[in-house]
Amino acid sequence: MSEIEFCPLPEIKRFQEEKLKDTLSYLKLYSPFYQKMFERVRINIDHIRHIEDLQALPFTTKQDLQLCNEEFLCVPREKIIDYITTSGTLGDPVTFAMTDADLDRLAYNEKISFACAGVRPSDVVQLMTTIDKRFMAGLAYFLGLRALGAGIIRVGNGIPELQWDTISRVRPNVIMCVPSFILRIIQYAEEHDIDYRRSSIKKVVCIGENLREQDFSLNLLGRRIREKWDVALHSTYASTEMATTFAECEYGCGGHHHPELIICEVVDEQGRIVPEGDVGELVVTTLGVEGMPLLRFKTGDLVSFHNEPCKCGRCSMRVGPVVGRANHLIKYKGTTLYPPAIYDVLDNTPWVENYVVEVSLNDTGNDDVTVKVGVRQEISDLRQKTNMMSSKIKELKDRFRARIRVAPDIEICPADQIRRINFPDISRKPVKFIDRRRS
User: Fold this and answer.
1) Which residues have CB under 8 Å from 156's CB, separation 6+?
2) 335-357 b/e with 16+ CB inside 10 Å = b?
3) pLDDT in tens, 298-355
4) Which of 18, 97, 115, 196 is the most exposed place for a label (fewest CB within 10 A)?
5) pTM for the whole structure
6) Alpha helix segments (H runs only) across 229-309
7) Around 341, how many Cα atoms within 13 Å sit in the side-chain half-sphere?
8) Helix axes 220-228, 179-191, angle to 10 degrees
């Protein structure tokens, strides 16, 4: 357990400011990128004494990491133990190099995050995530659970048949996976007469997709899962660049901040700190990273902070559900929205098997949105199929108008076709959003 999380906010702030001094000194000594930056903007790091003082420093961006990747490396190559890459959500993947100390930090991060989510050393956790393909998260989960002392089953992603065979053989009580995959394994269980409600699984730790609304109630995806399966659901939020996880406790009121690992800011489009509770882009400064530490890195994720103490006793800040990615903003027919709002409608439509949302620019330079939907019902008769498609398109458009006020273009496709888009061989996460505006 991380004791600093239970301290009052002023004490947490003083603690982080001491850590910040160490980080700035380290960057000045060992980081070619930040050495150049300090010199370019003529910053004396001795003047950065408080977290508020960070606002005098420029942001680090994804483009900086892409164009100057090796300049972020603070150690000789012989100290690097593991090479990983980001998932490439906003463009080309970025390589990160991790030392032995960084892997220890990663294990510690996941150990306390799993503990926050209520995972105990006596638990057995089935990992439905890949540990290969240069993926940080799968390795992090393994290291963290090992440090916690819990049992681990490394099944990997996909293949519902193998997931259920493993659950039957080993009887884990916790699974870790992407929330939408839970619906896939439930569907498989229903189609193959597996009594999943009486299985050994009692808890699901979720990654990669939102489960909650901004008021922390379950969103449509979360409610659909709980209606089917009475298991405890815990959201987590993380990224490769942060090398840190924000995990929900039993009360499900946001991801808890680990003050010893990361400093967080939330800024508006002009780079100004937003008031508490307002939505802005998350900016992070990593603490204790040896290989490639980051200073004021703009994550691209839009979130809000919550500073009131949690019922679990932790006083550290909590991060609310991700509203969307700054670069994924859609302006459609006079309405501004982010992909998760579209996902919520689709996840709450029972006959939708899977889907992908595509955004492109039309001839006038405005956003066009097309939702390709895979349906569960297969019909061979052409007339019946045409009527079914027309009926479902109308129903779905009505659902969209009721929820987000606008209805995108909809294409009904074979579920297998959409599944190939969702799970390409080279991807480590489900692909549900394709942005063709930057193609």
Assistant:
1) 127, 128, 129, 130, 131
2) eebbbbbbbbbbbebeebbbbbb
3) 998 999 999 999 999 999 999 999 888 777 878 788 777 878 888 888 887 888 888 9
4) 18
5) 0.81
6) none
7) 23
8) 30
